[in-house]
């Protein structure tokens, strides 16, 4: 089975078609996960896509979907409430159960975290539950409508602005969240629980994590997100959650899935061959398989990408930088020189040929790579100068400066 991200739909709890993405690993998934996004968010926020990608890289398929009335899903948001969100989650679990395999892992962000806690006891196959910045009671979101509560009570509904977007909220939504209590669901969870929360979360206070953690029974774990914001809008925070989560869940999967991320290498490409495949997450995202190693590539939002990985030129510079550092390390080792550490910083740009005094090209533009090498250790001036000379002898450097012939052929049969 080829990896990637597939668009799928299924029927939600209110009878509307819900839009979803199914992120799949290379080869047959060893388990499936279900992801519930934050209140008024969508399945495509960076945190959701990065977590799904991290799990897929560990052999786990992930279904993430837009709740009724949000994102690309049909239906009216005004007709939804917390109970309908929980019911949508159960419908998503049914969809996986009927078309693939019931979810072993359920992940929820913010109010989606509260929803997975409520839904988890009704998904018997689930072995692990993860919450990210979740409230301990759904009624916590009522503060978002503070300025409209009187109008909602008087007129039965009102338009409110959340995160810069208008939403119509009915009285039935407020009535529903006021009646929801998660303590009973947590007591009946009987599944491993991982709670992510930032102590400085200004939207859902850290006390919510404490209440969830105290009400749950073991096995349970808590991970502090330090100064992350509620939406994990800083890319490094989303990546951290994705990496920790993908490592943690392996402990709670059965059979072949019961290995940690470090012990579960992805299907390998043959030695010396690199395979690059579109993931379907935006127009440019790529999954790179090099031997048993998985990498990602993408473009920044400024050119239409989602910044889900380094750009192709970033990867080119990374190859040169890694080769440079390794070459210096091997040379210093053979000489028994006291080289402690090597760091290489690189930058690529295109410059006018006329600005390059030693270039053979005289018209148009040429590629220029600036490479700055930092070496630490008790090295004398002569040794440092020799290391600078050796840097130009790294194999990747030589490849870039030599004539390169790229032979391209269209495969007789595209991989499935």
Instruction: List low-confidence stretches.
Output: 255-267
Q: Measured on Cα atoms, how large is the radius of gyration?
A: 26 Å
Helical residues, percent: 25-40%
CATH fold-level assignment of the largest domain = Rossmann fold
**Which word captures the global form?**
elongated
Can you identify the CATH class of the largest domain?
Answer: Alpha Beta
Q: How many domains comprise the coordinates?
A: 2
Strand order of the largest sheet: 1-2-4-3-5-6-9-10
Any idea what the CATH superfamily of the largest domain is called? Alpha/Beta hydrolase fold, catalytic domain
What does the average pLDDT come to?
Answer: 83
Per CATH, the architecture of the largest domain is 3-Layer(aba) Sandwich
Following the backbone from N to C, one meets helices and strands in this order, namely EEEHEHEHEHEEHHEHEHEEEHEEHH
Oligomer: single chain
Main sheet overview = 8 strands, mixed
Secondary-structure content class = alpha/beta
Q: Give the count of helical stretches.
A: 11
Strand content: 15-25%
For the secondary structure, the number of strands is 15
Distance between the termini: 7 Å
